[in-house]
Amino acid sequence: MASQLLSPSAAGQGTASVGKRVVVCGGGVIGACTAYFLATKGAAQVTVVEKSSVACAASGKAGGFLALDWCDSSPLGGLARASFHLHRSLAVALDGPTSYGYRPLDTLSLTLLSSASSASDAAPSISLPRWVDGPRARPPRTIGTTETTAQVHPQLFTRTLISVAASKHGVEVVIAEAERVEVEDGRVVGVKLKGGDGRVIPTDTVVLALGPWSNRSPILSSLFNVSALKAHSIVLRPKAPDAITPHALFLSYQPTPGAKTLDPEVYPRPTGEVYICGMSKEAEVPEDPEEIHGESESISMLHEIAGTVSSHLRDGEVVAEQACFLPCTDDGLPVIGEIPGIKGCYVATGHSCWGILNGPATGASLAELILDGNSTIADLKPFSPSRFLHRRTRQGV
Predict the structure, then answer these.
(1) What three-state secondary structure class fits 223?
(2) 244, 231 in Cβ contact below 8 A?
């Protein structure tokens, strides 16, 4: 599979269609990856339409964890493996370690006692990173190595892709809200922007990468449903950041005896910050991404977890307390491909917690599908929008 991956530097060297213009609606990681690979593959003009700012939502507030084989037991396996390798090649092409914090890391699974538990209840620590000095229930288990797990800073990754695509390949970024896709005789002819003079961007191809806002598009909502999972996170800066080693932690934590066990995650970053997440719930997505805020109860629990993991985190400076929405489909798989019955209208959404991992392969596959007519990067059949056609039939659409 690795030999089939697009080289990020191979701009225009394939059999890409000449003169094709594409409008990508959505400036998150999926839209950014799609725009980047469309441009490097030779699309004549790519325009990204984003309502707020690039990586303003989940793509700017996610953990940025990458795993080679964690999706092997599902239809996502091939997409994830292809994308993991693409992340590596992108890091070489774009100086990922410097530009957006790309690095391989070791990953541990660890069960913690609550902060109220007695230290005598904890099992002896074995092979724990020295900075993980809070109470433990049992020794850690290695679930990923530098060969199989890695990380990026998701906001910096997304913005780097857009910046390079714009400066080197002429991608245009328009800050505006896409009101609707203009369709004539079953074919895309443009994208109408909301407000002002109601500008229409002429195009025969559009990619709807709207994440948790996908249901706001009648074209998409008539075919499938995307629900939103509100995920909370905090970012801390330890007083001695050099003491924090590159170990991602997947935790099992019970706040009090009999309470629901939580599954928080801890990601140290090469920037010296540490990202902690794990409190999530279904909620309604606001119209404006800038109106998304974390809930105090969830944020407080993440601080409690951080302090239980490490004294370095308990005493650290608070950099961010935040929340974002993850787009989830009813069958748990992303939707990637051309919308049935509308020529030139493509969708890429529903990646849930794996959006940062699977962004590159999604974007590269879509670029191939749009410009060459088929994808060799990954098999997109399991993610085709056509799998939801029975829903449209039931609704009489």
Answers:
(1) coil
(2) no
